């Protein structure tokens, strides 16, 4: 006789997405089912209907068609159908017939799926269990967000990224010397904030010349796809706000700063982080505010996180440095004079820190320390350090803590990070080659007239935007301007007689100079004309790179230069156009002229002298002699020693002696004295800085112990053997084809039965080549590096954990010592703790699995039989057989599920307590540190303290509310050895 009765509820085994079906009619041969939610009707043979009866039991919660939820207490059968008795969510009694169950009820939860006979493959269940395990392990890793990017593990960068991204809404100045990796640091910070949910939207503003470089670095190194916005694209959005078109928006500063309408649109959006590259260009003085500065100031008042990047924070002097700090924290940096005065106190702190290594012992060192310690905490540590009873371990610990405290509490260390080449080490040597060249007559006459104070000429030059300094240092520009004024530009082009052009052509044509050469020229027009000169006079194709080119033109020029084989031998760049660009694949730099500011000189060399440079840098200066530029060259070389390495005090020296230097351009009779004075001033200023601020900055910019800890955590993940195992299994299950290419490489491509499209692997894509090796991925841009943070791997983890994939399974266990016909259940419970993503609860209580293994009698075997041990001995069962087995053991399974829940619940309080303890330890420590800091160091913002305290409270409440849910269940049936 048929089991079917009209009105009963069943689900389709093969098409669960149809929802809950109702039997419409039954006869001797066929049964017809209506799936109301999907408006489908199906007729099946009674004998082979792929249907499973849906019957709930006491304790189950079910949705009714009227939108109630019923908690079942009793089940009654009437005329082949079921009536459920129980309570609604308000505790009111409720009774419904099964016909009144919600049609769209879905069976995603493990228990529902199991009891309705939906079982997945065993390997899916295993993948799910492993996904949960790895997810919870990784969420707590100190490497989280820093392990995935394709970068070399460089200590100072990882330290900064770790330190900054831990903070509530970080606001810092990344001011490492040129080419030490500020972009990488900003990328790491952004990557970690996005991955951990601390940030979800970022606005990145960079000079137009760097937009593409940023786009590519973020994609290649960090797998972050950002939206590059310009005016043409913005217009396509019509009235909609184009800044809402992506999670991370990258845009050119020049475009935004010139466009008040777009600025208002940017301000109207919600952002968590603002990144501003080459931030020294933002003009500010107590009297005036430039448009770029004003734009960033308005944005920075609305956006909690702010990263300003500049290699030359003091390029425009201390005042301009102050201007950037003021953007980061206007409350702290509101008084320029006070800021100046503070700097004087840094030497005493630096001395005290150095004294720590020598203590205890010397009375003078004790005094040095005593002079800067002014709280009970510090005094207690100092007492331990000085106590003759203390052992070496205690002293070391006190020393370390005191050092941390002092560094934390004094100076700009919290808001500014500046690493120097000297400190980081490993950079190539620099060699200066000066070629003295004859001064053309036309220039000689010009210089003479300038020196004689020809007013008419000065007026003509000034009309062409050439001040006295520019007219002397860039004679070709002055010549062009005067020629325009005199002959309407009909005279000879300057490059026909300028001996620097002859020199350059000869250099480029000689075999010895067959390597790539970067030529930097101060003025844009000169750069363009120099390229023309090379083409016309020598047939040399030299792409030009300057600020007025379109993005595409600029990138085309840089790409032509970068290409290995067919690329151009030379690239001509203007000063501003080349700033921030990566040209470390070349090691010959020609300075066609010289910039006035030492920071610009360093910026030029920094194009080549960057991380990744493998050769000594050859700096060539073709020098017209005699000329004002020759004076400047001597001043740079003999006074500042500016070509051999960066010297932080160059800006200060120029500020003090700039007027004298300007005079010397015309009359070098006192140049020797000026050079001497420059040296003395420079040495004194450097010594002063070394004694104070620079040392504090340096120590603050990288704390090796912390950096080492982060690097170890990253390396541990790099070497994690579980990753390839997990990825292999997941790719196989998701239907991705993986082909071993040898040499640690593999090619991944969408398989014909791929379950779902995955990042980089949509159906029809060619796929990509990947490796687990950091070194291999760094050596080749075209290979992706698989890590736990790679978008594909993250997507695999997420897809498994956010779907029902593998949350039920049934397997057979054949074991000589276990009799057949017994039932076991392996239950995996998962903590559930709703909290905003930005709280980053996962640091303390990520979704955590609790595994419970019960035998038929309810005995807990979890500790005796491990997951892997059991998995190894299990065998598959056909789905149909599994379903029948489950049907026949419904009641027993229900009882075991409840028992399992009780067992898991017993473990929850310990889990919660541990998580709370860990959270309190971490946040209380941080809070105490911030409070202590705030008492002395105004760099700690009031809102930072408050938001940390709020965060602690919110985390405490969230962890407290943790509950458990059944995430997955596997039924295991034992079979006798001879049974099949
Ligand atoms: N950890 C790293 N691994 C691999 N490459 C790196 C790393 N750090 C920096 N680089 C490379 O070194 C070069 C300089 O780095 P980056 O552009 O971040 O420096 P920067 O300090 O921003 O430079 P600038 O002062 O010119 O703006 C880039 O080509 C970058 O890709």
UniProtKB/TrEMBL annotation:
Gene3D superfamilies: 2.30.30.140, 2.30.30.930, 3.30.360.80, 6.10.140.1500, P-loop containing nucleotide triphosphate hydrolases, Tandem AAA-ATPase domain. A motif (DEAH box) lies at residues 277-280. Residues 500-682 form the Helicase C-terminal domain. Residues 883-943 form a coiled coil. Keywords: Activator, ATP-binding, Coiled coil, DNA-binding, Helicase, Hydrolase, Nucleotide-binding, Transcription, Transcription regulation. Belongs to the SNF2/RAD54 helicase family. RapA subfamily. The keyword Ribosomal protein does not apply. Interacts with the RNAP. Has a higher affinity for the core RNAP than for the holoenzyme. Its ATPase activity is stimulated by binding to RNAP. Its EC number is 3.6.4.-. The keyword Repeat does not apply. InterPro entries: DEXDc_RapA (IPR057342), Helicase_ATP-bd (IPR014001), Helicase_C-like (IPR001650), Helicase_RapA (IPR023949), P-loop_NTPase (IPR027417), RapA_C (IPR022737), SNF2-like_sf (IPR038718), SNF2/RAD54-like_C (IPR049730). Transcription regulator that activates transcription by stimulating RNA polymerase (RNAP) recycling in case of stress conditions such as supercoiled DNA or high salt concentrations. Probably acts by releasing the RNAP, when it is trapped or immobilized on tightly supercoiled DNA. Does not activate transcription on linear DNA. Probably not involved in DNA repair. ATP binds at residues 176-183. Residues 163-331 form the Helicase ATP-binding domain. This is RNA polymerase-associated protein RapA. PANTHER family: DNA ANNEALING HELICASE AND ENDONUCLEASE ZRANB3 FAMILY MEMBER, SWI_SNF-RELATED MATRIX-ASSOCIATED ACTIN-DEPENDENT REGULATOR OF CHROMATIN SUBFAMILY A-LIKE PROTEIN 1. The gene is rapA. It is an enzyme of class 3 (hydrolase). Pfam families: Helicase_C, RapA_C, SNF2-rel_dom, Tudor_1_RapA, Tudor_RapA.
